[in-house]
Design a protein that fits this description.
The complex is a heterodimer.
Chain A (H helix, E strand, L loop, with lengths): L26 H12 L6 H7 L8 H4 L23 E9 L5 H19 L32 E6 L1 H4 L37 E7 L2 H15 L3 E12 L28 H7 L15 E10 L1 H5 L3 H8 L28 H5 L10 E2 L2 E7 L5 E11 L6 H11 L6 E11 L12 H4 L1
Chain B lengths: L7 H20 L11 E5 L4 E3 L3 E3 L1 E9 L5 E7 L3 E9 L4 E8 L2 E7 L8 E8 L10 H33 L3 H17 L1 H6 L3 H5 L15 H10 L5 H20 L7 H19 L11 H26 L1 H19 L16 H18 L2 H6 L2
Parallel strand pairs in B: 1-4, 3-9
Antiparallel strand pairs in B: 1-2, 4-7, 5-6, 5-8, 8-9
Classes of the chains: A alpha+beta, B alpha+beta.
Catalytic activity (chain A): heme b + 2 H(+) = protoporphyrin IX + Fe(2+)
Pfam families (chain A): Dyp_perox_C, Dyp_perox_N
Subcellular location (chain A): Cell envelope
Chain lengths: 436, 382
């Protein structure tokens, strides 16, 4: 413990009774004020004024463009069909043993308020520098001065929230969608239980890693006592694009991956393959989507020693252009017969799976090295779909059985979540339709 | 066991926050910081000028300007260099503000250019008029009195326990000494924030090897812990160190009546005890040789709970929800610890506690520590 805790015998700021009138101020506006103060008036008044945005109104219309804000409210949750951001912090939570349905609902309401603030580029609660010097600030502060950075926060509910060890902890068992299965074991899986499962998840995506990490950190802090982090994963370098007009990103194997993904603007395919429709399952999931998260470790070192031909045969695409075998350009329709039958594209392409599509939203990860000098790196695979039983499961069974890529990868973490429809307007909260 | 000084990074961070807070306050025309009543301190490389050497007690604001060329720090010391309040890392040309609750009495303000040494001292007198010398709420005054009594009881009970521990070492009875190690620490661990406010006792008695400052001789509990467990040794050095530990702790016992205890320091002390658990016990760093971490853990929680229970009449009135949460979290962590109590009254050695079990402890500590960090503001402010 610090020998010199300045608060121990001092009572800072009896002024803490001041009302938190800056509660909804934007992060950048705060810096504007602080900057003016530090510079002792050198900053022109105009620059301060410019930094203060009128964003007290959390309605999406007011926030649509400024500071790279993705609207929080809407029919579907943001962070699914939203153009994929550059960075990820994904966290799976367990609900603590002593939590009740009521405490969980209370948390979900608090989380929703915080999520609306953070995705709008605003501080949590009474902010990072509140009037009271006596209490720890509500907001942890590392995102001060940063724009919203297209932050999206997407919540999901895991199978164990509905039933764990045969116990219906929160009276939700009857609401569990049939599609929210325990994923089967796939051939070659080597799942670490400490990187798998979870009662809840939050996917934080942003163009700035600090903004994504800030979001998860603050939600975790708010959740302490009710939920605790089971595992979390940082990701960078999106590996799939939902904006097909842009260049398809490359995974850590150096290949373009996810060329034939569902575009965020492709409402027909989104309706057909991503959003749960009325009648698909319980009503609370209508407009939602099922998320499969897989931590896929790549055997980077052996992959790097594979010849170019072997690498291209593994994917069924050329490395440079990304063109499917037998074609010239990346987006040319592939001729599956022209590529090895066990290549990744030959097995995974919709044409080989009765038109089956999933919306991929994965990120690369590198968690340093593994203690044996090997990169602990790979793909944090995230896929959204209308019904996991008809999408990820048959697809992965097929891949696990014969994908040539399996020689170079291993699935080491796995989780499945039901992500409900969007929060439509201020006052509504995450999971409201489920908890009622 | 404390790091004697925060890491530079942490200190810089706290400075950044303080600066932002000041700036924010200034723009809001905050009525507290920098007001006309503030005591102004001009710190230079060679002087520590105080605008008045006599001012009323109660809530005191010290506005510090560092006009020197070195980063400085400012302390307010009571007799015997007991730290009343302090601010570190005030950069050249910058200002900082300390808000503190200071009772009537004689003090010294020390500016420490370069953040080293005893500093440039200035005697001050805090008078009784004007400011309240007791907390406004008489229940808080009663809580402080009760807590001081508790701290004294803990010290009074610790001394004979440490004497027995020392006697076993001096008698060369290794196993007995080992069995008396953890119990000798209980009273200390329950009230550690009070002990740390004395500044010099804690480094002598409760320092871990990796936290020694350059040139500091390693003494105290953890030095003996290593001898007993890692080296199976009760030699002449250990016998001398055992006597010294007893002497140092008798010194602590004598100092408690003069400890600066306020409702704020009680609440923050409770939070700090949980910080101790989170930082040192959960990782098994505290008692790395004896693995008796859970005994310290239990004592930290008990001490935090005592402080909370004494403040609870006020806390429950001002923030009933916080009080309910704290009641529930203290009960939960106590129940979790109870699962590790063995038939002979000792705890499961921490090296036998699995990673998954440590995660459960960590979650419980976070669940309690987070609301506990809000206790000071709930009790003192409003």
């Amino acid at each position: 413990m610090d020998a010199e805790n300045e608060q121990q015998n001092g009572t800072p700021a009896a002024a803490a009774t001041a009302t938190p009138d800056r509660a909804a101020v934007s992060r950048r506006a705060v810096i504007g004020w602080a900057g003016a103060g530090v510079a002792l008036g050198v900053a022109a008044a105009g620059s301060v004024a410019a930094a203060v945005r009128q964003d007290d109104d959390p309605a999406p219309a007011a926030n649509a463009v400024v500071g790279g804000e993705v609207p929080f409210y809407g029919e579907h949750q943001a962070g699914i069909s939203t153009p994929v951001q550059d960075r990820l912090h994904f966290a799976a939570f367990d609900v603590s043993e002593k939590a009740t349905r009521d405490s969980l609902v209370k948390l979900l309401k608090e989380w929703t308020r915080a999520a609306a603030a953070m995705t709008g580029g605003r501080e949590v609660g009474t902010g990072a520098v509140p009037a009271s010097a006596e209490a720890p600030p509500d907001d942890t502060g590392e995102a001060l001065g940063l724009p919203a950075s297209r932050l999206t926060l997407t919540i999901g509910f895991g199978p164990s929230l509905f039933e764990k060890d045969g116990i219906d902890r929160f009276g939700l068992k009857a609401q569990r969608p049939d599609a929210l299965i325990e994923l089967p074991t796939f051939k070659g899986d080597k799942l670490d239980p400490l990187r798998s499962g979870g009662d809840l998840c939050v996917q934080a995506c942003a163009d700035d890693p600090q903004v994504a990490v800030h979001a998860i950190r603050n939600l975790a802090r708010i959740g302490m006592g009710t939920v605790n982090i089971r595992w979390s994963q940082l990701g960078f370098g999106k590996t799939s694009s939902t904006t097909p007009d842009e260049q398809t990103p490359r995974n850590l194997m150096g290949f373009k991956d996810g060329t034939h993904n569902i575009a965020g603007t492709d409402t027909a395919n989104l309706s057909e393959h991503v959003w749960a429709a009325p009648g698909d399952g319980p009503e609370w999931m209508t407009g939602g989507s099922y998320l499969v998260a897989r931590r896929i470790r790549m055997h980077i070192e052996t992959w790097d020693r594979a010849s170019l031909k072997d690498q291209e045969d593994t994917f069924g695409r050329t490395k440079g252009e990304g063109a499917p075998y037998g074609r010239a350009k990346e987006h040319d329709a592939p001729d599956l017969k022209a590529m090895p039958a066990t290549s990744h594209v030959a097995l995974a392409h919709p044409d080989a799976n009765n038109g089956l599509m999933i919306l991929r939203r994965g990120f690369s990860f590198t968690d340093g090295t593994d203690g044996l000098g090997r990169l602990d790196a790979g793909l944090f695979f995230l896929a959204y779909q209308r019904d996991t039983r008809k999408a990820f499961v048959p697809l992965q069974q097929r891949l696990a059985a014969s994908d040539k890529l399996n020689e170079y990868i291993q699935h080491v973490g796995s989780a499945h979540f039901a992500c409900p429809a969007g929060v439509r307007k201020p006052g509504e909260w995450w999971g409201q339709a489920l908890f009622g | 066991m404390p790091a004697r000084r925060r890491s530079t990074a942490a200190a810089l961070l706290s400075l950044a926050v303080a600066t932002a807070a000041l700036a924010g306050c200034a723009s809001k025309k905050d009525d507290k910081a920098g007001g006309a009543d503030a005591v102004k301190i001009n710190a230079t490389d060679t002087a520590c000028e105080v605008s008045t050497t006599s001012f009323p007690g109660g809530h005191v604001v010290l506005d510090i300007s560092n006009k020197g060329s070195k980063t400085t720090e400012v302390y307010v010391y009571a007799a015997g260099d007991k730290i009343v309040t302090e601010r570190e890392n005030i950069g050249p040309g910058t200002k900082a503000s300390i808000n503190a609750e200071i009772k009537a009495g004689s003090y010294e303000i020390a500016c420490k250019p370069g953040m080293v040494g005893d500093g440039i001292r200035q005697k001050i007198t805090v008078t009784g008029e004007g400011g309240s010398t007791a907390p406004a709420d008489p229940r808080l005054g009663a809580a402080v009195d009760s807590y001081r009594k508790y701290a004294q009881e803990q010290a009074d009970a610790t001394v004979p326990a440490v004497e027995a521990f020392a006697a076993a070492i001096k008698g060369g009875d290794l196993e007995k000494a080992k069995s008396l190690y953890a119990p000798s620490r209980t009273g200390w661990e329950r009230t550690e924030p009070v002990a740390e406010s004395f500044g010099d006792v804690d480094p002598k008695t409760d320092t871990r090897e990796d936290k020694l400052e350059q040139g500091q001789q390693w003494t105290g509990w953890h030095r003996l812990e290593k001898a007993l467990w890692a080296d199976a040794k009760t030699g002449d050095d250990e016998k001398k160190l055992a006597d010294q530990l007893v002497a140092d702790l008798k010194d602590w016992q004598k100092k408690i009546p003069e400890a600066e205890i306020t409702a704020t320091s009680m609440a923050n002390g409770a939070k700090e005890l949980l910080d101790e658990v989170a930082t040192n016990k959960i990782t098994g760093e505290e008692d790395r040789y004896s693995h008796t971490d859970l005994a310290d853990f239990q004592a930290n929680v008990e001490g935090a709970q005592k402080a909370y229970e004494l403040l609870k009449p006020v806390a429950a009135e001002k923030d009933p929800e916080l009080a309910r949460t704290l009641d529930s979290e203290f009960a939960a962590i106590t129940a979790l610890l109870a699962k590790y109590k063995q038939a002979d009254g000792t705890f499961t050695p921490y090296d036998k506690v699995t990673e998954a079990e440590r995660k459960a402890f960590s979650d419980a500590v976070n669940s309690l520590g987070e609301p506990l960090s809000k206790l000071a503001a709930a009790v003192v402010v409003k």
